[in-house]
Input
Amino acid sequence: MKVTVIGAGSWGIALAKLLHDNGNEVAVWSALSDEIEMLNREHEHVDKLKGVKLPEDMIFTTDLKAACENAGILVMAVPSVFVRSTAKTLKEYYKNDQIIVNVAKGIEESTLDTMTDIISEEIPGCTFAVLSGPSHAEEVGRGIPTTIVVGAKKREVAEKVQEVFMSPVFRVYTSPDVLGIEIGAALKNVIALAAGIADGLGYGDNTKAALITRGMAEITRLGVAMGGKTETFYGLSGIGDLIVTCASMHSRNRRAGILMGKGYTADEAMKEVKMVVEGVYSAKAAKKLAAQYEIEMPIVEKVNEILFDNLPAAECLKDLMLRDKKTEIDVKKWQ
Output
């Protein structure tokens, strides 16, 4: 099958190599002519995925029409803030028998739409799926064993994507819970900022474990209220992705958080990381969703205060520790 990867960032390039290794014809599109020239010259993304050599017969182009022609699957791998504008352009070239697989993670701040909401709005009637889970591009590009989940409304769509992506080093599960997968994928980036901030402040493993656990509780409360399934948040796109994003130095969200914990502003941290830090864009959306669904999300609230109200990170953590006393689990009656 011909597969087109729309977006030549680190994740798009890692997936392009995986798909080529699986025996597919692969084309990679980018709107940036300098990026395409570099990929054609070096057959390596020297800025974002150094050391991962790409096959000589992989196609790199700025021509979206040519890239999409005769492709069975279109992988939407642009940053979340560019999904809507890219989908608008893609609409002209999309064919009804193509599957759009979204791999961007985020929620649009102005509309509170998920990425597949945006794609289906801009390309009405399209067939879409979402691919997510604990999967750093740096490791997927090097063929390190990884497990991920594909969500789709129809089983046959999920199984088709599973078939194309699955390999001895890339195990793919299927799920019908598209919304739950996308909420887990987007909001884990906000919690990863908090985990990084705690690291930057010099806190330890106890603090990290607390943020992961209570962060997962916040994500699950909101995701279930929105219509996601509880089991999804216990799975690969929930706790799995949250753990890896909060713990790994491959995580741009954690790295940006570390810098903020050391006193950088959000803008300074993003410039230092030199990549799109999705959690910064998802934080406001998460706060708005929490208000809309009347869900308590204190970690998300404090991340917003650090990002946009210039509150000192150490003060925000103290506020979290000194909140009103709570019961962790209250599903059984006390004796």
Remarks:
- Strands lie at 2-6, 25-29, 59-61, 73-76, 99-102, 127-132, 146-151, 170-175.
- The chain has 16 helices and eight strands.
- Residues 266 and 307 are 6 Å apart (CA to CA).
- The radius of gyration is 20 Å.
